TrEMBL record, chains A, B:
<feature type="binding site">
    <location>
        <position position="116"/>
    </location>
    <ligand>
        <name>substrate</name>
    </ligand>
</feature>
<dbReference type="InterPro" id="IPR045865">
    <property type="entry name" value="ACT-like_dom_sf"/>
</dbReference>
<dbReference type="InterPro" id="IPR035804">
    <property type="entry name" value="AKIII_YclM_N"/>
</dbReference>
<feature type="binding site">
    <location>
        <position position="49"/>
    </location>
    <ligand>
        <name>substrate</name>
    </ligand>
</feature>
<comment type="pathway">
    <text>Amino-acid biosynthesis; L-methionine biosynthesis via de novo pathway; L-homoserine from L-aspartate: step 1/3.</text>
</comment>
<dbReference type="GO" id="GO:0005829">
    <property type="term" value="C:cytosol"/>
</dbReference>
<dbReference type="InterPro" id="IPR002912">
    <property type="entry name" value="ACT_dom"/>
</dbReference>
<dbReference type="InterPro" id="IPR001048">
    <property type="entry name" value="Asp/Glu/Uridylate_kinase"/>
</dbReference>
<keyword id="KW-0457">Lysine biosynthesis</keyword>
<keyword id="KW-0808">Transferase</keyword>
<dbReference type="GO" id="GO:0005524">
    <property type="term" value="F:ATP binding"/>
</dbReference>
<comment type="function">
    <text>Catalyzes the phosphorylation of the beta-carboxyl group of aspartic acid with ATP to yield 4-phospho-L-aspartate, which is involved in the branched biosynthetic pathway leading to the biosynthesis of amino acids threonine, isoleucine and methionine.</text>
</comment>
<keyword id="KW-0028">Amino-acid biosynthesis</keyword>
<dbReference type="GO" id="GO:0019877">
    <property type="term" value="P:diaminopimelate biosynthetic process"/>
</dbReference>
<dbReference type="InterPro" id="IPR054352">
    <property type="entry name" value="ACT_Aspartokinase"/>
</dbReference>
<comment type="pathway">
    <text>Amino-acid biosynthesis; L-lysine biosynthesis via DAP pathway; (S)-tetrahydrodipicolinate from L-aspartate: step 1/4.</text>
</comment>
<dbReference type="InterPro" id="IPR005260">
    <property type="entry name" value="Asp_kin_monofn"/>
</dbReference>
Length: 449, 449
């Protein structure tokens, strides 16, 4: 049995719905279908989720409701769905402001979730009209139970007990992604892009053999196609590799969605709704993987800052780093990496955590508590990740990475290898990051090994 | 004014004493002389400090006292020192067991310190006999005040107030190294090799222009002479470089001795008592340094172990490393480095901290508290340090380091650059470490840049 998830662009219009239905029909194993809310039809378009957020803030503005409903109506018209079947969905949308919510956050969560909920109901109707045994799966009634965080909920273990009832469905279950029922009985959503998570939970809970994740790209590529023209698609990769690449912006698959699939060791197939014939990218457990290239992919991310600390005999003090981490903890700052020298420490942060005086306050406390000889803040920091199970224990990989960078006159501020055996992390100036990624890609994929 | 410190081998015999006296006489600026206890005269010899440790444990064994005194007598005979001048020193040695000590640790500290104390008094007598204006500087009376740790004391700030009285000495002060008076009035020693520390304290306290550290090697070398024949001597280096190289076994100068010299920004000249005409190695503040080579030195050390931890989403947990460090703190374990991946962490430890069940207990607690997906302990770990102010911001250094290692088929487990801008740290198997050091040395010092 396969769980199939379709992203927002795959369900943005009637024409896209048609492709989705053909994909479902093409394989009788596709018996659980997880849907997102309708996404953008073109660059100028607005996602239904964003319209719903507006609606939540201005529940009296009729034009917004009309704009939202028009999206669903367009799809329904494409399939000539009778008006009386649509009326309940339209009413549900219109009546959203009249429901009870414990606070404005749960109100917003419920509004957002209806992008998926209405879309799933609409797909169910269309399939049923075509005489398919489709059934709407209601996360609230069927027990997809999540924590009480309205916008960043996490699945709770009892969900999996409940899902056991749905194993081996002889129908096509159509599941709205992105949300569940909180412990207190209200709608709570996962973080943005969370339909991937719903798919993963369904795959685990129903013991799927495969989790197919349909999106609008042919595959995960070895490098960002905006940097390199026609990069090679990754045919096979491991969970770990996907995770490491996701870190620097390979955003094809939601981070948190990996966990349930890893726990259940279910392979993920990332495919393109618009080219379902292509093999896409298969993400598998480590044991099922044989590397085809030395590296699997390379990516960069530019939103980092670094804090440099120097103090003589720093590494003789058992408590130095501990005190430092306690300060980060107090300011609720998480750090990314912390390469250390003998008397030095560099701490790399996600830049987006700092606003206003927070950074200066934190640095001041570090100065007062730890008395470093030197404290420096560096804002121009990019991280490059070179990822590949194939480089494990392979000698000379590092040489092949740093050679082209030296030739391109790119300075390496930081290099961190040793923790993950399947990745090497480099720090460069932000202006050098894209060139560095290109050079590394060319070295491993365009030159002879 | 110069502070001159002589190591144990420089004062191991009458003949060596003669060289020391010639060095003192050669420069009227050498007005503070710090002495160690007599060291080994040959490989089979025993250091006086080690004999004193035996004496402290068996205070009734006359043969040990005789063996110790014989060392001083040999030196005195070389200079034909009259017996009546020696009698007080001999009595002081013989009467050591009769003094009061608050406990056996302070007893041992006092016994050990007398290796230096008697040697300094003996040198004073010899200089005076040669009509030099020498005077014994008594750390107990003159106020070299240290903490109450009998064997690992640290200098206290009031020492420097006291030392101000001794500025611009018009005599030659002969200072026994290695010990001071504890706050409670007893003798307490620095850690082993601590005469370097006394020299540094005197240099700072008396505002010396230069701290000359005489030992038995011509210079600090760019690589261990046991690995490479006739390596190039380092003529000029910075405090930081010395510190980084000391970390991996460049043991010419005591780690802690650097602090007072850095605080007072006094250059250190490491010289050879046996070839005082050679320039030796000058260690200077960063501002006085112009790099002559890209790297200054390379060294390795093999006594490391690594702990590898893997857990999905590890870097999303603000408190993960904090909890880990709290466990280390509880077990009083200090870590050396902690390179991190996205979902992994490697922690590198000094192997010598672990004995018996400690390691297993600690790992068990880490398992129970942090629940990693994987925990691995790796015992075969060597660290290589490549050090040089000259590689700061220089592009291509990393390439030149990893190139020869790849050619020699050496796997790099870990690489850590970024904290200290003047060093790159590599992890290899212990069996590969010496070859790696040799190859890196050859790359930077024997091939054309």
């Amino acid at each position: 049995m396969k769980v199939v998830k379709f992203g927002g662009s795959s369900l943005a219009s009637g024409a896209q719905f048609q492709k989705v239905i053909e994909i479902i029909n093409a394989d009788p194993d596709r018996r659980v279908v997880v849907v997102s809310a309708p996404g953008k039809r073109n660059d100028a378009d607005t996602k239904v989720t964003d319209l719903l957020i507006k609606y939540a803030k201005h529940p009296d503005r009729k034009t917004i409701v009309e704009e939202i409903w028009a999206r669903y109506q367009e799809i329904a018209d494409f399939f000539q769905v009778p008006a009386e079947l649509l009326q309940p969905l339209k009413s549900e949308l219109e009546n959203l402001p009249q429901q009870n919510y414990s606070n404005s956050d749960f109100l917003l969560a419920a509004f957002k979730a209806h992008g998926e909920k209405i879309n799933a109901q609409l797909l169910t109707i269309i399939l049923q009209e075509q005489n398919k045994p489709a059934e709407f799966f209601d996360p609230e009634k069927s027990g997809l139970i999540v924590t009480n965080n309205p916008h960043d909920a996490h699945v709770l273990p009892q969900t999996y007990d409940r899902l056991a009832d749905f194993q081996n469905p002889n129908k096509i279950l159509v599941v709205p992604g992105f949300y569940g029922r909180s412990e207190d009985g209200e709608i709570a959503t996962f973080s943005r892009g969370g339909s991937d998570i719903t798919g993963a939970i369904m795959a685990k809970g129903l013991h799927a053999d495969l989790y197919e994740n349909f999106t609008d790209v042919d595959a995960v590529f070895a490098v960002n196609p905006q940097l390199v023209k026609n990069p090679i698609p990754i045919k096979l990769m491991t969970y770990r590799e996907l995770r490491e690449l996701s870190y620097t912006g390979f955003s094809v698959f939601h981070d948190e969605a990996l966990i349930p699939t890893i726990e259940a060791q279910i392979p993920i197939n990332v495919k393109n709704t618009n080219h379902p014939d292509l093999p896409g990218t298969l993400v598998v457990p480590e044991k099922d993987f044989k590397p085809q290239h030395t590296i699997t992919g390379v990516a960069s991310s530019k939103h980092f800052s670094a804090l440099y600390l120097h103090r003589y005999m720093l590494n003789k003090e058992v408590g130095f780093t501990l005190k430092l981490l306690e300060i980060f903890y107090k300011y609720n700052i998480s750090y990314e990496h912390m390469p250390s020298g003998i008397d030095d420490l560099t701490v790399i942060f996600d830049q987006n955590q700092f606003n206003g005086d927070l950074r200066e306050q934190m640095c001041e406390e570090i100065r007062a508590t730890l008395g470093p000889d030197r404290l420096e803040w560096i804002d121009d920091y990019a991280i490059i990740m070179v990822v590949g199970e194939g480089m494990r224990n392979k000698i000379g990989v590092l040489k092949r990475i740093v050679d082209p960078l030296a030739q391109a006159n790119i300075g390496i501020h930081m290099i961190n290898q040793g923790a993950s055996r399947i990745s090497i992390m480099l720090g460069t100036k932000q202006a050098d990051a894209s060139t560095a990624v290109k050079k590394i890609y060319q070295q491993f994929f365009e030159s002879k090994e």
